Amino acid sequence: MPRIHPPSSALRQRFRPLLWLGIMFLAIALVTRVVLLVMSGHEVPPTPLNLLYAFGVGLGYDLITFIYVAWPLVLFLWLVPTRAGRMPGLRRWLLSAVVVVLACAICLVVLHRMYHATLRTTWPAVLPFLFVLPLAAFTYTSRAGQWALYGFALLLLYGLLFVAASELVFWNEFDVRFNFIAVDYLVYTTEVIGNIRESYPIGRWLALLLVLALVLFAIGRRGLRARDDGTRFWQRGKVALLWLVLTVVSVAAVNGGMKDRTGNNYVNELAGNGIYQFFSAFRSSHLDYAKFYRTLPEDEAFRRVRAMLKTPDATYLNDDPRDLTRAIRHAGPEQHLNVVLISVESLSGDYLATFGNKDGITPYLDSLVGQSMFFDNLYANGTRTVRGLEALSLSVPPTPGDSLLKEKHNENLFSLADIFNDRGYQSDFVYGGYGEFDNMNYFFGHNGYRTVDRRDIPKSATIHSENVWGVADEDLYTLALGQMDQIHAAGKPFFLHVMTTSNHRPYTFPQGRVKQAQLTRAGAVAYTDWAIGDFIKRARAKPYFNDTVFVITADHCASSAGKTSVPVNRYHIPLWIYAPAHIAPQRVERLTSQIDIAPTLLGLLHFSYRSRFFGYDVFQLEPGRERAFPATYEKLGYLHHDVLTVLEPGRKLEQMKPDYVTGDGTAIAPQNEEQIAQTIAYYQVASDLFKRGELVRRPDDARPVAPLPAPTAAAPASASSSGP
């Protein structure tokens, strides 16, 4: 009689490759964590507590992540038949293919319903189903089955090594594990893959990863022997069911924020797992404020915001407690000067000699400080270009999850361009790349701007340098000057928002412009500085120069990482307002938010208009009311009176006294409850207004607002002096 093997023994035989994958995965995760620790340098004090937390909690996240990572192999081991059986092979495969396609469709529908995700972001979810598709075409114990298992395992191993290498590159750039930036980049594969190819020797790296994968596979190949003494589909299904239960429990019981328990953000990041953090960020891409953050009663939230937005130059147009529409009145007449707003890619304040940099990479911009109205204490809204564009065009605090540039129903919002357009301006958004990236063309094209991008450069134009992100800054400025010439020739004033790209990896630029090396951040910053100087020089020769205001700022800083969740030193950006014929040079030391730039600019032009902006004209603001909104995609900061309050998902918050130089923070106890309420009110109201479609432009927003009587003095005191 044939020997009868207990089902448990046969199941152990069948699912033994899971042990092989687990060992490989945990080893790769451990090595990755060690390398990231070394890359962190002095940011992580090597105390026993820090190391125990990073590696102990990290092991927990690695085990949780393994449950997800192992699913393709679990499906393989479950679904591949032990032996041929009675059903012909082709019929068996066709039947399984129908089931797989239906399951894939259901998965995509569920992701769309739960996270509003489109196929552009969910396409990776199709890959496991493609793996499953051929599994019914062979049997597990056959030669073909053994080689299929080898090939499948080698593919998984190579994928894990590729992800680990990618995470090292990501950490080198952002000093964090995979986060929402990585999710965001997944949508724009052309730019991201092109950026990687132009920045790194990708072919050599991929080949080295393949060699490493083959070596590891050869060492552990014996753990992949295909043995099965007679398991049945339903018996193997018990293991798959157990794996499903573990998956559901882990999703319900664990989240990406549970690791953030130390005061050092680098330690918290090391304690995570990059793959887990990636999918955690994906789940957070559409955060409903009311569902995930602390809230106030709606009436109280709106009452507080109305009180905080009231300034001496503003009058509410009605008593509706939920309407923020104000009449902003300045002494006329309005100055319909041309405006060029340049948002410079990643121009951190600490690149400037003005703020203590010793490398001499921004000589022109430093020289411009004494010729401009220069703001010393300006803070960006976020760490991504879309956050800067959102702040500059809409003057709103950042909403959690996606920027409004990428949200649905973001058309016809009340924007800076609308105010200029009502006065006969032509408003253009000018970009040196393809404006589909980050949904820029769609957003600006539906909110008062005419979009001008790489496609609008004449074919006869000289392109001095270009990369995957766009043309060199000097060529972008040539495009902008062409638009300015055309609009001026048509007899209209112009408002241009110009977005640069040269200060972005791979850091390439035309040869011979600066002494710093290609492919370096220092070289890119130096070239950015040179290109702005060249642009101003060329603009100076134009007939409209004396009647043009140049506003130069950054979209965000070059780095966003720090020991705290929102390190304020990584949000400090410069601002120049340069118009030698109209605006006297001065240093403005007051705390200023990126959302204050638009209303402050309009105030300098003496515009009187209707507004629902959340920003202030800083020269009309009483001392002591300044604030800023530094935030990440899920952590929402409010900086006021040298106190930083940060709202977090799970209705958590932290409050600290920030160090403006290092970015560190000291927890405050007891917490300032009034400032907590202010923080909640701002973010809650901004999110609620967008969700309800009330940030849109209304027909009567174009109605003229009567200016104030002309002042007797030459200028208000607040515009000629700067307070702390």
**Class based on secondary structure composition and strand pairing:** alpha/beta
The N- to C-terminal Cα distance equals 93 Å
- List the total number of helices: 25
Q: Would you identify the regions where 5 or more consecutive residues have pLDDT less than 50?
A: 714-724
Proportion of residues in extended strands: 5-15%
**Structure summary, number of beta strands:** 18
> Sheet with the most strands?
9 strands, mixed
CA gyration radius, whole angstroms:
29 Å
What's the helical proportion of residues?
Answer: 40-55%
Q: How would you state the average pLDDT, rounded? A: 90
Shape: elongated
Subcellular location: Cell membrane
Organism: Rhodanobacter caeni
Keywords: Cell membrane, Membrane, Transmembrane, Transmembrane helix
InterPro entries: Alkaline_phosphatase_core_sf, OpgB/LTA_synthase_biosynth, Sulfatase_N
Structure description:
- Helices cover about 45% and strands about 10% of the residues.
- It contains 25 helices and 18 strands.
- α2 packs parallel to α8 (about 145-175) and α16 (about 300-310) crosses α24.
- The strands form 4 sheets. Strands 3, 4, 5, 6, 9, 10, 11, 12 and 13 form a 9-stranded mixed β-sheet that branches. A 4-stranded antiparallel β-sheet has the order 15-16-17-18, covered by helices on one side.
- It is of the alpha/beta class.
- A hairpin with a 6-residue loop joins β17 and β18.
- It is found in: Cell membrane.
- It holds the Pfam family Sulfatase.
- It is a multi-pass membrane protein.
- Keywords: Cell membrane, Membrane, Transmembrane, Transmembrane helix.
